[in-house]
Amino acid sequence: MSKILAANFKTNHTRASTRAYVEALDTFMEASGYRDEVYLFPPATALNRFETTSDIRIGAQNAYPIENGSFTGEIGLEQLQEFGIDTILIGHSERRHIIGESQSFIAQKYAWFKEQGFRIIYCIGEPLEVREMGSEAVRRYLIDQFEGIDTSYEKLILAYEPVWAIGTGKTATPDLIEETHAEIKKMTDHPLLYGGSVKPQNIGEILAVPGCDGALIGTASWEVSSFTEMLRTAQTSK
Ligand code: PGA
């Protein structure tokens, strides 16, 4: 089965370095005949209509649920449409826990971008204190993160990213990913990515986990050589 790989730049890269990255990625994908889904989420300032030969899908890490208006510091649909962007990340743990987005605001954003026909990568995941309470507590926590979310939306991709594994170097074990993905798939059956310290050294075993349809990668995606190494693993581990 083909896998979905997504690179989340977070607050890294500039317009210039994103352009160079996309060029290098395009060259790699062309040369290796890479055909599976690849997403790239650059910072808002580096969004662009990149002229690529291969199918690199550029998405927004975030946007406000409005066409345009007075929302200082935010970008809306108009700014995304300028570059033909129709993919967005919603519910990322950094937006939930650092920026402080509530589930009701996340649900509002989700409903609005669904209305616009966007492909949505919707992120869920539990913090450490919930994981330590056991799998039933995790299950309940994840159910709450679906509150207000239309899980029947056909352009939905899910990403399970345990908060304690994001940017920490601590990856969930294959068994734990398998168990949690199975629980999530009982709630809603959509392509389900794993995220949290995925890197070239562990992506092979992560993609081999039953019920894992791909990976959402932060830190290890920022160097293009590291990301292409992971694409190569995805390609050969099919
Ligand atoms: P990480 O981030 O790969 O740096 O852990 C993953 C994510 O936040 O999507």
List keywords for this structure.
single chain; 238 residues; alpha/beta; TIM Barrel; 8-stranded parallel beta sheet; 9 helices; 37% helix; globular; binds 2-phosphoglycolic acid
Gyration radius from CA atoms, angstroms: 17 Å
The overall number of domains is 1
Approximately how much helix is present in the residues?
A: 25-40%
Ends: how far apart? 6 Å
Mean pLDDT rating: 96
Number of strand elements: 8
**Which ligands, by name, code or SMILES, are bound?**
2-phosphoglycolic acid
Report the principal-axis shape: globular
The CATH homologous superfamily: Aldolase class I
Strand content: 5-15%
Output the CATH class name: Alpha Beta
What is the CATH topology assignment?
TIM Barrel
Structural class assignment: alpha/beta
Q: H/E order of the elements?
A: EHEEHEHHEHHEHEHEH
Q: Which parts are unreliable, with pLDDT below 50 for 5 consecutive residues or more?
A: none
CATH hierarchy: architecture: Alpha-Beta Barrel
Number of helices: 9
Strand order of the largest sheet: 3-2-1-8-7-6-5-4
Main sheet characteristics: 8 strands, parallel
Walk me through what this model shows.
- The chain is of the alpha/beta class and 238 residues long.
- The chain has a single domain (4-236), classed as Aldolase class I (TIM Barrel).
- It contains 9 helices and 8 strands.
- The chain has helices spanning 15-32, 77-81, 93-97, 103-115, 128-131, 135-144, 174-187, 203-207, 224-236; strands at 4-8, 38-41, 56-58, 87-90, 119-124, 156-160, 192-195, 214-217.
- It has an 8-stranded parallel beta sheet with strand order 3-2-1-8-7-6-5-4.
- Helix 8 (203-207) links the parallel strand 7 and strand 8.
- It starts with a strand and ends with a helix.
- The model has no long low-confidence stretch (mean pLDDT 96).
- Bound molecules: 2-phosphoglycolic acid (PGA).
- The site of 2-phosphoglycolic acid (PGA) has 13 residues, from strand 8.
